[in-house]
Amino acid sequence: MSEPNPLCLLLIEDDLAHAELVHRAFASAPGRVEIDHVESLEEARVRLAATKPDLILSDLRLPDGSAIDLLTTVGGDPGCPLIVMTGQGDENLAVLSLKSGAMEYLVKSPETLRDLPRTVQRVLRQWELALERRAMQVALRVSEERLRLAMEAASDGLWDWDLAGRSVYWSPRMYTMLGYQPDEFPLTLLRIKELVHPDDRRRVARSRPWRTQTGGEGFALEFRMRTRSGGFKWIGARGKPVAWDSDGRVLRMVGTHVDIDDRLRYEQTLQETSGRLHALFDEANDAIVVAEHPSLRITEVNAAAEGMLGRGRSDLIGAHLSEFHPADAWDKCGRLFDQAGRLGAKILCESEVVAADQRRIAVEISASRISLPGGRLVLQGIYRDLTERRHLEAQLRQAQKMEAIGQLAGGVAHDFNNVLAAIMLQLGLLRADRRLPAEMQSTLTLLESATKRAADLTRQLLLFGRRQPAKFQPTDVDVLIANLLKMLRRLVGESVQIRFTPKADHHWVLADIGMVEQVVMNMVVNARDAMPQGGRVELSVDLIERVPQGDPGDGRPTNPVPSDFVRMTIRDQGTGMDEATKRRLFEPFFTTKEVGKGSGLGLATAYSIVKLHNGWIEVESTLGKGSEFSVYLPFHNPVRAALQAGEAAQPAVGGNGTVLLVEDDTIVRTFAALSLRSVGYAVCEAVDGHDARKVWSHEQGRIDVLLTDVVMPQGLTGWELASGLREQKRDLAVVLMSGYTTELPQHTLDPANRLVFLQKPFDTVKLTRAVRNAIDRISGKGADSGS
């Protein structure tokens, strides 16, 4: 590779010491430099006539003249850049040197001489730029006429602005573009300004295109101009300076005007359409993902996709679609995406995606191919979150299942009630037999307790099936929990300890015992599930004398009356809950347990039961520190509770008269008849309503009480039978028996009807008291329900 040519300098300096300093400066500079040293202008001219250096370095004052003489004398242009040096700075001389054509003016000093190589390089670059600019000016002038002729033939308008003479030329197209005839009006700068839209004039004036410096790239503006019809049209103006004065000020500019009205209108329409489409894309509820085909690399996503996948846009762009699909689902999805891309077929399928937190989200995917300009193909996939739909479907299935279970429970409980009624009546008859030894009496007591427990279970089944209303009665919460402990310990297993220490003071509430038991069991089971590794559940009961105003959203009454409330507290050592979980805790079907391990109904049912008892539930919980559920129920007066409890312990009530007993269940009918006869009543038996009417026709004169089941075979109900017989005997006492009150018409239990309802299953005491109360209601001696 050949070496570059050396830099050739002509040094004109009569001071040998200064000349030596110049030599030294270039000797240490990079590159090869050849310096031809002369001491006078005369010598310099001889050298310039023989050869042309790359640059001249000249002292200002020389023995035979001045360095400026090289530029100003006839034929003095040396054809290369000149740097003038002087020992003493003079501003006037500096200006004169530069105006004469020198490229640089230096005051000699150790610094400037040492920096001389860099100065030379800079001046050479400026010289090259100046040469190029001059060449361009020449070429522009040569082509001006050619350009003018070409523009006249084109659809663009041509203008030529002489800033020095303040005159403007418009080609014919400039006029016709605005609807005018060529040269229709005198063309002045003022008239042109008036044609510009008032709202655009300041912007056009601020642009000051005529201030473009020498060699500038010109300008481009868009503004409106008035047409001959009075409207306005958008014009695209471009211009470029073509002549400057010696100070670099623009003397002349040429340019074009283009009618861009249609283009802007189309662009605006396109922008509005694009904006609407972008808004639809970004604000869509469904996740939308755009991917290149066939690479399946994501190129665009909307906000819903970011939310669904739990990742930001920057994390999604460029990723492969398969990264967000489980491996077991991608095989199918990948084939469908490929099919959509190759064949242009729209696909619709259900699959899953994996979010950043590793949750698998069920989605419905609709994908189609889109062709873009340039032949690019992309796939647009719309992902619809099926979580809510699946949740609703699960709720529907669960509700249907619960309805079916409820109907089954009601039917089973009805049959159990008849069996239990027979057992309880027989136990009552046995207890009335004074010949039984004492040890048998204690056995009967155990049997009665077991049958009452069985009766409670059937009543809970009926409550579960919503076929029996709540039965409120004075209840000692401490006793209720103590009686449940054995069952609770079986429920939670050996890994969970249950602690409950009743206090000396009893805490009475007016409650449905079965329902409150269900609340306790649900919450203890919930506490157990929160401690998969085992732990301790603590139960306590206390009395709160005053309850502060509650927030309407926490389940409390919005305006609680200052009163006493019994508080049941269930505390566990489990995993605890965050605030989001606590907010949804009592929603039906909401559960944090694994699929198949929770219905989401336990706490929702507890909440409904407590609300039915005019109470509320408060929850305190922290993640990792366990939970505490406090159930508040209104305190009930223990004196009244004791009195009512004493009533239940009264013995069977005897009487006289004749009872027409109508019951289709043979066992219940047989033992009910035996129980009534054992206390003094005469009994006529019938298996259904039609049979009862036959008995009535023969025994009407001596029948005092009608004791009938509500629902019986042959289509005649107990209420219809009672209504018909009372038309014949107005003072007929009536007792209606049933396992649940929903079988009775709404008006049946109206006090004006003077009848008694007897809940199945019942024992001898309840049976005889119901008959006595029915007789007393007719005679006006009492009004107890007997139920």
From TrEMBL:
Q: Name it.
A: Blue-light-activated protein
Response regulatory domain mapped to chain residues: 8-123, 658-775
Q: Please provide the record's keywords in A-Z order.
A: ATP-binding, Kinase, Nucleotide-binding, Phosphoprotein, Transferase, Two-component regulatory system
Domain Histidine kinase stretches:
411-637
Gene Ontology MF terms in the entry: ATP binding; phosphorelay sensor kinase activity
Question: Transferase among the record's keywords?
Answer: yes
According to the entry, every stretch annotated as the PAC domain falls at 219-272
A Pfam short name: PAS_9
Q: Known SMART domains for this protein? A: HATPase_c, HisKA, PAC, PAS, REC
**InterPro entries registered for this protein in UniProt:** CheY-like_superfamily, HATPase_C_sf, HATPase_dom, His_kinase_dom, HisK_dim/P_dom, HisK_dim/P_sf, PAC, PAS
What is the species listed in this Swiss-Prot or TrEMBL entry? mine drainage metagenome
Q: Which SUPFAM superfamilies match?
A: ATPase domain of HSP90 chaperone/DNA topoisomerase II/histidine kinase, CheY-like, Homodimeric domain of signal transducing histidine kinase, PYP-like sensor domain (PAS domain)
Q: Does the keyword Transit peptide apply?
A: no
Q: Which Gene3D superfamilies match?
A: 1.10.287.130, 3.40.50.2300, Histidine kinase-like ATPase, C-terminal domain, PAS domain
PAS domain: which residues?
143-206, 273-328
